[in-house]
Amino acid sequence: MRKTNQIRFSLFVYFLTLYIVTIQGIQSGDNVFHYERTQNILKTHSFSMPEGRYDFNKQPWLRSWMEEGKDGRIYLILPDGLSIASIPFSFLGNFIEKTGNYDEYRNKINEAWENNQPERMIYYLNKLPSSFFSVVMNSFLLALTIIVFFKFCYLLTNSPKKAFVSSILLGNATILWVYSSNFWTQPIVTFCMFSAFYFLFRFNREDNIKYLLLAGFFAGYSYISRYASILSLPFFVFYLICSGWKERKSIVKNLAIFSIPLFIILFIQMYWNFYRFGSPLHLGVNKLPFLRKCFIPYSTGMLFSLSRSIFVFSPPLILGLLGIKKFIKEHKLEFISITVISLSFIIFYSFFGFGISLIGSAWGPRYLVPITPFLLLPVCLFIDEIRWNKILTYSILSLGFFIQFAAGFQPLQREAIDKYYGEINLSNIPFLKTEIIPQAKMLFKGGFHLWMFDSIPKLIIGLILLGISLYSLLYCIYKVKKVGEEQAIDFTMD
To answer: Which domain holds residue 208?
Structure first.
């Protein structure tokens, strides 16, 4: 693993700088709510929403997102994990914000809020450094996710080239790139869930207790970032029991160690529920839509429709399917685990009407972002030097890059879809309609929108970041070739 340290570092720098350059900022109401809660934590040391900002009498729709606590304060019912993790990044943004004059933007934000102009409010909100650096956290976490994915692939194949190509497929040709540019919860959940599984895999190989503790921590933190991620917990336990049974390890002891950080986080969450609402089990999510009887059409839509198919918006997952046969042969337990985790998410979100409909600011199946690295993992065993494999791999990489490019260099805009297709009824599933075409048309008509074009100083910073990104990628390619050659020499000598 030490031979790949420089590869992993340069790969991380490449994705981090690329993701930062393509940040689109806060894009929807729940992004705004997470941001305002984070700001309130920093300014008043309270996890409630800003006092006087929200009024249920004037805005009754807010009750779908917030609830009044027993202390009279209003609390966001979305999990706190994203806001907590973004504190250091938001702190840096606030520090930079204090060095300049942003009062004009704040006044326009407040004016737009009072006049019920959400798009205008979000436009000026994204001009603030505090907003920008909050989103940088998601870019940072998804860049880390790529590195975890690289290490996982390297352990499975012992090939830096296969791990590198697999990582490029994940980071540049799947919807992870697009979701690195906003302030949704999917990036942090993706990082935590996949890291938990990775550390369980490492423990299975190396029998080091620290991997169990890390796995338990990330499994717990994924829950307090998005409650639905608890779906993965039974299958993590399943993997731990089966791997321990196979290797004749102490299953009870391992489960206890894994549970320590997990139960600590769950206890803190239950205490927080009691503090806010008077019950350790009260999360507030009972107001959210659930169990709409539409399992078959929505599950089919997330898999096969042009509007939301995970394979349409993340083409490399097709290559993951092609690597399954070899993956089952060499890593049967891991295959069973990633399959049941992925199916649990698909089945769960198939009961949500909004899981497939064309909601503005969503790119592909947003709720399936966390299972993307799981589904792609077998691709590392598909990549080889066979000519047709290489042609297919790089063709799908190019296609996936183009699809993410269409959304990564401009905000996701609902009006583009409406103008292209006409007004869409969100209660219907448009199997044959997709955002990719109107988004691409807008882009190629000059619709580029990057923060670096706002001013000359930002342009200079953006160009420097692009230069660092390109250099890191080229250096990474060089090191991959060099390490591969060294491994070939060592193999020949042996």
So the answer is: 182-444
